[in-house]
Amino acid sequence: VLSHNLCTVLNVPHDPVALEEHFRDDDEGPVSNQGYMPYLNKFILEKVQGNFDKVEFNRMCWTLCAKKNLSKSPLLISDEDAFKVWVIFNFLSEDKYPLIIVPEEIEYLLKKITEAMGAGWQQEQFDHYKIALNTSREGLSAWELIELIGSGQFSKGMDRQTVSMAINEVFNELILDVLKQGYMLKKGHKRKNWMERWFVLKPNIISYYVSEDLKDKKGDIILDGNCCVEALPDKDGKKCLFLIKCLDKTFEISASDKKKKQEWIQAIQSTVSLLRAGSAPPHKEARQKRRELRQKLLAEQEELERQMKELQAANENKQKELETVRKQLEAAAARAAEEEKKRLQTQVELQDRFSLELEREKMVRQKMEEQVAQKSSELEQYLQRVRELEEMYKQLQEALEDEKQARQDEETVRKLQARLLEEETAKRAELEKWHLQQQQTIQMTEAEKQELENQRMMKEQALQVAMQQLKQLELERKEALEQYEEVKKKLETAANNTKSWKDKVAHHEGLIRLIEPGSKNPHLITNWGPAAFTEAELEERQRSWKGKKTNSE
C-alpha cells in the first residue's frame, strides 16, 4: 500500500511484480526502514521526473508520521497549520539524518512568521531561548518545532486566526514559491472589461483566480527573460495601472493603490531579472547562502581551533609576530586616518565645486526663462497685429463689394443711355427722310399742291408728334445722364473709400493690393462700345438738325 501510494503521488508507474521479487526471500516479518530504503531508491525514486504535486506528496508523508509523532498536548495551531510547519521544517532542515533545524533557521522562520503577523520581533527573548537550546542540543526536530510554534511562546497576544494566516503566508512563500499575491483588476482581451482577480506571482508564472481560495483558475501569465513591466498613466477611470508585456500577449492591470502598484512592479521586475540570470527563487537562494555561510563558519571554526592549538605550541614566537602585527596595524591605522583626512578634504572641494556649478545653472535657467517671457510677449504682439490686419481685410472686402455694386449700377445706366441714343438716332433718320420727301413735294406741280399740302399737313402733324417723342427722348436721356452722374458719384465715393483703405493697408506694411477705379472722364457709351464723338459734338449736331428743319419750313 505504501509503495502504491508513493507511486501515485509521484506519478511513477507501480510495478507489483518488482515488489514481490525484491521481498520474496524476506520472511523475517515487518520490513524495517533500512530494508525498505533500497527498494524505495531503486524502483521508485530513480523513476521520479519531477512532474508531481509536492504538496500532495508531503501530505501523504505527513499522514504516515503525524499520528505517531505529533504531541498530544493542546496546541494553538490547527493540524493543517502543523502540517505546513512540518513541510517548512523539511525545507529548512539540514541535509543529514536525523533531520534537525539549527537555531539560525529557527530564528529566520520565527522572524518571517512574526513579520507576517505584523508584530515586532523580540530578539532578546530569542537570544535567551537560543542560549538554553545550544547548551543541550544542536537544533530541534520537526515535532519540537511544531510544539514551539504551537505553544505561542513567540506569538503572545495573537489569536489563532492571525497565527494561522501568518503560517499560511510563510508556507506560500517558502514551499509554493509564491513571491507575491493579492487582489487586482485585470482588463480582458476580448470584451475589454475589468474584472477583479486574485493574482499569485511565482518564479516563472503569474496565475490569476476568481478568489483567494484558488479553486477557479482563470489563466496564467508565463514569464521569461523577454518579459517586461511598465507603469501606465491613469485612463478610462482606472488608476494605478501597469502593463506586463510578454512575447505573445500584453496584460493591463490596475492595483488598489500606488503602493501596491509599485510593489507589484518591483516584484515582477525582480522575478524577470532572476529568470534572465538563471538564478533560483530568492528564498531558496537565501537558504543556500545561509547553509554555505554556516558551513564556512564551521570550517573557519575548525580551522580556528587547529590554529589555536598551533598557537599554543608556539606561543612565544607568535607573541613576537603579534607585536609586529600590532605595530603594522598602528601604522596602517595612521595611514588610514591620513587617507580619510584627504578623502574628506577632497569631498569638501567637490561639494564647493558642485555648489558653484549649481549656482551657474540657476543663473542660466533664469536667463532662459526671461528670454522665453520676452519671446512670448513678442508673439502676443504679432498675433494682435495679425488680428488687426484680418479686421482691416474684412472692411476692405466690404468696400470692394460696394465698388463692385456701383460699377454694376454704372453699367446698367450706360446700357440704358445707349438704348436711348439708338432710338434717338432712328427718329432723327426718320425725320430727315420726311424732310426730303417734303422738299420733293414742294417741287411738284400746282395741281398736286393742294393734295400735297394736305399730305404736308398730315406729315407736319406726324413731324410734331415725332418732335414731341424726340423731346420726350431728350428728357429721358437727361434723366439717364443724371442717373449716370449719381452712379459716377457713388463710384467716386467707393473709389475714395478704397483709396483710404489702401492708405491704411500701406501703413501696415502693404499686405493687400487694392483694386483701383477706372477713369473719371465722362465718355458716351453705345451698344457698340465707346462713342466716336463727345457730348459737345452731339449738341452741335442737334443744333445743325434744328437749323435745317427751320429752313425747310
UniProtKB/TrEMBL annotation:
Question: SMART domains in the record, alphabetically?
Answer: PH
Q: By its UniProt entry, which PROSITE patterns does this protein fall under?
A: PH_DOMAIN
Functional description taken from the UniProt entry: Phosphatidylinositol 3,4,5-trisphosphate-dependent guanine nucleotide exchange factor (GEF) which, independently of RAS, transduces signals from tyrosine kinase receptors to RAC. It also mediates signaling of membrane ruffling. Regulates the actin cytoskeleton as an effector or adapter protein in response to agonist stimulated phosphatidylinositol (3,4)-bisphosphate production and cell protrusion.
- According to the UniProt entry, the coiled-coil residues are 283-504
What is the protein's major site of localization? membrane
Q: Which taxonomic lineage does the organism of this UniProt entry have?
A: Eukaryota, Metazoa, Chordata, Craniata, Vertebrata
Q: Please give the Gene3D superfamilies that the UniProt record associates with this protein.
A: Pleckstrin-homology domain (PH domain)/Phosphotyrosine-binding domain (PTB)
Domain (PH): give its ranges: 177-273
Q: How does it assemble?
A: The SWAP complex consists of NPM1, NCL, PARP1 and SWAP70.
What's one Pfam family here?
A: EF-hand_SWAP70_N
The record's PANTHER family line, in alphabetical order, gives:
SWAP-70 RECOMBINASE, SWITCH-ASSOCIATED PROTEIN 70
List the GO terms this entry assigns under cellular component, sorted alphabetically. Answer: cytoplasm; lamellipodium; nucleus; plasma membrane
Cellular compartments annotated: Cell membrane; Cell projection, Lamellipodium; Cytoplasm; Nucleus
Q: Which UniProt keywords apply?
A: Cell membrane, Cell projection, Coiled coil, Cytoplasm, DNA-binding, Membrane, Nucleus, Phosphoprotein
Provide the species name.
Thryothorus ludovicianus (Carolina wren)
- What this protein is called in its record is Switch-associated protein 70
Tell me the GO molecular function terms: DNA binding
